[in-house]
Amino acid sequence: MRKDRLQDDQMNKVEFGLPLGLWLRVRARIRQAGAWEMPAGAGVMDDRMVECWPNTESDLHVLDVTEVYTPSSDLNLLGTFIHVFAGERTPTDEEVADFYGEHGPLLDSVTVDGQSVAAWTLRLEEEDQRRLSEEARRGLCEPLWWVRERALEVRLTYDLYVALKEDKVSSLRALLGGVPEGKRILSMYMLAGSIMRDLVSEQEVGRGDNLSTHEGVVRRPAGSFALDFLAVGTEPTQSPLRPLTEDECRHWARSLLAGQLNAAERRTRREWTPIDDFLPQASAKGEPAGAGPSGGLGLVWGCRFDSLTTAIYLQIAHLAQRNIALRQCLGCQRLFYSRRRNHRYCDAYCGDAARQRNYYDEHVRKAKGRLNRRRRSAKTKG
What we know:
By secondary structure, the protein is an alpha+beta fold. Helices cover 39% and strands 21% of the residues. Among the domains are: 3-158, no CATH class; 355-382. It has helices at residues 3-10, 13-16, 77-85, 93-103, 126-131, 134-137, 144-165, 169-176, 202-207, 246-266, 308-322, 348-381, and strands at residues 23-26, 29-32, 48-51, 65-69, 109-112, 115-118, 141-143, 179-180, 183-191, 194-201, 218-221, 227-228, 237-238, 241-242, 268-274, 291-294, 299-305, 327-328, 335-336. Helix 3 (77-85) packs antiparallel against helix 4.
């Protein structure tokens, strides 16, 4: 299948899906979101909306696609997603539009009553859901509070992987938080960009209560220091915390990491497809995530995914399978995939800019040193 046919036949991903391993690059427009498009409990307060559909009546339900590409071969997708959306500063409209133009929309969707709807819309009240446009319900619009929450979860997942890989127990404790005295962790999961835990008291464990249906289960974000939410609808109370033991840190970090990666695996389908339908790009040495080697029959074995978020988690799984980690650029501080051991910058432009800054800073430092020496010499002579 040629690229022009892909653009003609598969642009409406919301209806048909895409062939094996391919995704969409789109033109994105940024606008202010309506009050009904942002839930009161959004973890990230960003009231901008990304639109990925043309502003014409004839194409309202078609993504504004520029081309298709293979995200599994772009091993910097993970680092770029984290850098743009999970950083401490809010991304600019230009940075958001550039990301969508390079990597495409997330298009996270769920099936409700047999129909595919945008996952973010389920976070809204029913009355607000009814006010949404058809384009928003179908996933042609994505609010940035949702995108950034997904990025924070990806960042947490990647940080857990790196801390486990390097066996940094202190980092795991910082990510997982402490446990209130007299409580035990029943389960741990991620929700809206935070690590959540179900807790139960030691007395209930000793009595052998049915913990899976216990109403007193505690749900609280990890990393908070003194809040103990005893049950839904109750007031938080202060409680001292104990740090997790090393074994607890490793166990729950592995459980969380496996849960996140398994959720992504369940949203993929491993298939064989004719190589004509697959458009691989240049990739790093080794098998890229989601794309298998082609054989003499002209077939390729890989995965089909229905959201870019799934493809990003598959890249973390690919790193875990190969026991490698991304590097941090010394210039812009973003994470990047290094194909050589001596790479310290994400690209040549960033390296040149960093070297120029270092040269300037060194020149200024030496000039200040000479000026200070002359001043001290003048005072001595005076």
